[in-house]
Amino acid sequence: MYNYLDFEKPVADLEGKIIELKKLAENGEAVDVGDEISRLEKRVRDALRDTYKALTPWQKVQVARHPDRPHCVDYIKGLFNDFTPLAGDRNFGEDQAIVGGFARFRGEPVAIIGQEKGSDTASRLRHNFGSVRPEGYRKAVRLMELADRFNIPLLTLVDTAGAYPGVNAEERGQAEAIARSTSACLRLKVPSISVVIGEGGSGGAIAIATANRVYMLEHAIYSVISPEGAASILWRDTTRSKDAATNMKITAQDLLELKIIDAIVPEPLGGAHRGPDTVIAATGDLIAKTMKEFSGANTDFREQRREKYLAMGRNL
């Protein structure tokens, strides 16, 4: 059974009926239910198609936050070989909200930095729900500098509601750590690719996402603040989060139109959580295509990146 979102109730009801029929058949209490199950499965596909082609921005927020979406570690396991993790910032400690290291992608060496939310209670606590502390961003800077030193392309996987806002994090220089990480991204001489796989929240996301190419999954979101945060600031009313989501232009489709991102990775019908292997493979294919373009290009990647982000301010 899936974790159903509020707007997926028609799908949940239909899939519930399918499960009941299969149990009856297994227990010998029903015969010849195959046709009915096939009919219901078609209705499920139709319901998912109708629902997901008309998602509102707020519904996309819910899909982007779905607990069963594939996370950073799933992409690492599905796309890379010989992953060797790097730990610690050589200053304070280890932050497991950032998972990073070196690996091989289809035979080529790459550096990987990703934000990991966790998939169950224990792992969510261990990874701090993907909210990165200063030591996590400093670890990311270590990886970027190593990638530059050894001329290895950088890939980042973005999935965070935002940087950790706790008092201890602020005391350890959270704002400075985010700024240095963003600066390190922009200074890289090697090519960089960033993929927003779920939530891209605020400076916590931008700190590892200022890449030469930025991609988003079809139902991912990317914004300077959460809809709830925007609603509380603009209207002093978090119940207006839906209005905020609509006006903030946070969806992949909006951001592609605004030329903030470069391409969208399609998700399986019903979202990435219904076909994790499919979306991971599609993401890998786009990364491979981009790396092939980069390898054959005589490009100053630092200058290209600089122009990419300066143009966003010029062409408003």
From TrEMBL:
Coiled coil regions, renumbered to chain: none
Entry's localization field: Cytoplasm
Record-level Gene Ontology MF annotations: acetyl-CoA carboxylase activity; ATP binding; carboxyl- or carbamoyltransferase activity
Annotated EC: 2.1.3.15
Keywords: ATP-binding, Cytoplasm, Fatty acid biosynthesis, Fatty acid metabolism, Lipid biosynthesis, Lipid metabolism, Nucleotide-binding, Transferase
Domain of life: Bacteria
Gene Ontology annotations of biological process type: fatty acid biosynthetic process; malonyl-CoA biosynthetic process
Entry-linked Gene3D superfamilies: 2-enoyl-CoA Hydratase, Chain A, domain 1 (3.90.226.10)
Catalytic activity reported: N(6)-carboxybiotinyl-L-lysyl-[protein] + acetyl-CoA = N(6)-biotinyl-L-lysyl-[protein] + malonyl-CoA
Domain CoA carboxyltransferase C-terminal: 40-293
Subunit field text: Acetyl-CoA carboxylase is a heterohexamer composed of biotin carboxyl carrier protein (AccB), biotin carboxylase (AccC) and two subunits each of ACCase subunit alpha (AccA) and ACCase subunit beta (AccD).
Protein name: Acetyl-coenzyme A carboxylase carboxyl transferase subunit alpha
Organism: Mesorhizobium muleiense
